[in-house]
Amino acid sequence: MKIIICRHGDPDYSIDSLTEKGWKEAELLSNRISKLDVKEFYVSPLGRAKDTASLTLKKMNRTATELPWLHEFKGKVMEDNVPVSCWDRLPSYWTEVDDYYSYDNWTSVPLMKELDVYGEYKKVCTGVDELLEEYGYKHEGRHFKVLNSNHDTIVLFCHFAIEAVIMSHIFGVSPMPLLHNFVALPTSVTTLVTEEREKGIASFRCSGFGDISHLYAGGEEPAFAARFCECFDDDTRH
Fold first, then answer.
1. For position 238, what pLDDT does the model report?
2. How far is CA 35 from the centre of its chain?
3. How far apart are the C-alpha atoms of 216 and 228, rounded to whole Å?
4. Residue 176: pLDDT band with limits 50, 70, 90
5. C-alpha torsion angle, residues 70, 73, 109, 80 (rounded to 10)
6. Which of 6, 212, 222, 232 is buried most, with the most CB atoms less than 10 Å from its CB?
7. With contact defined as beta carbons under 8 Å apart, do 94 and 120 qualify?
């Protein structure tokens, strides 16, 4: 089976929707996704993901199932006595902590234990496992037991951080390198595909991460959202 993960378009966080550029990106994404044979669509509860999905769904005369765990990742830590997202940490801090590179230990770091990062992570893991079992792939240890081999394609419209969390669970790796060393720009497409090299056993491989070829095909420059300054002295997001 194929899992296609689409990040929402360039966001206007103030209204939980898209900027004018984001709507253009979503239209170009809809041209791409509407050509696929999609079994089911799933969408985050947040407006920016729903709005991004809406153009594809309208073009295909389809609907999407809203999944609460596709919400932007809710894990939080304390910073200056204020709860903030756990997934944006400076490299001088997180790269020095070996446990952040461990699938089993990353939520055990003292900072991550301040609030409910582990609990929020497990909610997503449970959601992923339940969804994939519906399609015939039961998570067992570090691979999947094949209950119903198939070529189904499902599409998830969601967010970069939750995408990294989903992939970390499917691949059995910490999400921290995915969050900090990879970037999925607005309306980017990530494709995960099963491989069944042994009868009854499947694993997922990433055949494309953060692909934005639909934007280039439409003459649209990618948005900067999710990135930070390329050089420290640049007048861009720090």
1. 87
2. 21
3. 21
4. very high
5. -160
6. 6
7. no
